[in-house]
Each structure stands twice: as C-alpha cells, then as structure tokens.
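Narrative summary of target 7.
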Amino acid sequence: MPNLSIKNVPEDVVARLRARARSNHRSLQGELLDLACRAALTPDAEPKADRHLRGETVGTKPIEQIVAEHRQRRTRPVSDAPDSTQLIRRERDAR
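Modeled conformation, tokenized:
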C-alpha cells in the first residue's frame, strides 16, 4: 500500500488533529487515513478551505435563518414530551 507524507504542517493544526484523533479513539495516522478516505469519497465537492480562501462564508447561518427553519419544522410546541426533571432524576437514581 502506498504511503503519503505531509510536510510543514503548522503546529496548531497538528495539535487539533491529535485532539480529534484522541476524541475518536484513534491514532493520528488512523484519523488522517479516515479523513483522507472520506475526502476521496466526495471528489465533486469543493473543499471548504478553497471557498473560505476566496472570501466566501462557509457553513454558517444567521440565527434568524436557523430560527425560521426550526419554526417551519416545528409548527406547534411539543406538549406530550416527558418532564426533563423526572428524566434526570430517574437516570440519577438508576445509578
């Protein structure tokens, strides 16, 4: 199997990748392999970094848009949901 090497990676990027790998219970190599494989599965998608470098806003929405989308999905309040206090107490007492 071929090997890849990335040189001159900024220290802060390496630190974030190590933290990401740790949170996913992987080695740094395993995390990098997972990221590369997932990126290769979507060759048509333009990388967010490229769009960001051109000055485009990527992956953000104003709060007003988020609220409007939520209200469209949820036309009426949830009235039959269990009481959160009771759920928390039940979980606590089960320990």
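The first helix runs from residue 11 to 23.
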